[in-house]
Amino acid sequence: MKRGAASARQLKAAKQKAAELAKLLRRQARRPFVLEITGTPKAGKTTLISLVDGFLRDAGWRVHVLKERAGACPLPMKGHFLFNTWTTGTMLAALIDAVDRDDDLVILDRGVFDALIWLEIQKHQGQVSNEEARKFRDFVMIERWRGLTDATCTVKVDAAVSMKRENEHRLLPRTGSVMNSKTLPQFNAALAALKKRHAKDFKFVELSNGGTANDGAFKLVGRILQQTRDWADPEIAVIPRESAQALVPSRVRAWTGQLWRDMSRHVEFRKRSSVENDDAWVQLLACGAQVFDKEVFLSIRRRQRSQLPSERDNSARVWQGCHVHRAPRLDVSELSSQLLARLRDDLHLGELVSKPRPLGVVWTPSDSEPGHLGVFFKVPVEQRIATFLDEKEFRTNGRGYKRESSFVAPDELSPGNLRSKGYTVEQWSLEVLKAKWLP
Q: What is the mean pLDDT of the chain?
């Protein structure tokens, strides 16, 4: 980043803050943070991306820039509906791949929101019918991929400024299918209208026309640091360790309504980073064991080659879970709702029609997971879901574990039987099996 965007002292402080945040992202983020940058053609997006990319890389971030697809599109007519369709489809494919990689930040040069802007223009120009526009909009707004964009930065300049920048290095001015005095104002009008319409669907960062490119880049870096911290370090439910010891004195405790009433009185919400290494607090996890026709969903987590040999064992578990995030009202229904959302995400399910039933709580303070207490649910699944999940492999390109899954009968879940197949049994799964809570 060049001088002028901020003082040397401000830059140094921002770089230190970014370096510290990079460590938190490696510990807690489940995928890269995704920032879309869009705006008026010739508004300076390429320069902005280059400045932000360079600054964060210098601070130790792993940044992946997904370049806009327009330049690679083989269709000749820019601004056409088919052009928008091609660029949107290839952008989504690249984004789905990028969020599964081991980066900290993905910068998306024109993404979902940009596709909506061009759709609005094409509808205004009569290129698409209302029905086509609705179907295209519904597709790009599907939560699975719209929700992958965590922040959207818009950069807007007047049409006259865009045309001046387009032609400042040409002896003979020229116009194109996009770079002309009619389309550019339409773009800006569509951008403004869609920001109002989708204020609740996207988290917008707006950069004004004033100031230098360095000013805008420094402002955007500040917003990225704040939003990534809020995103990767949410407030989670915790209880004091001494309360956990009183509530669960013997590793497992079967569920009763009174147990939850007693537990909920001790629940507080703290930033995850503030309790990760604080022995005074125990973090709550909502844990689900999925069952179908008296069989239990077994997940095998295969260690990565990059880990130490002693850590490469293949761990078998009968549950998946998540931290419990702050909610207006924390009750058993909210815990099961957050759990189902995580299961849908982790297992690539469009829906999971189920009524989880609480089984009890597990805490192993002297063994594994001493800083977590699991609230366990039995999650019945439909046959179609069980069929889809049975004998599946969940592969990644760098984040998390490679996993295999299957539904197995209870007699196959004995530690001895699993060890004979080369698997170690995760401690909480052992406790749940010994308690005979399943199937």
A: 90
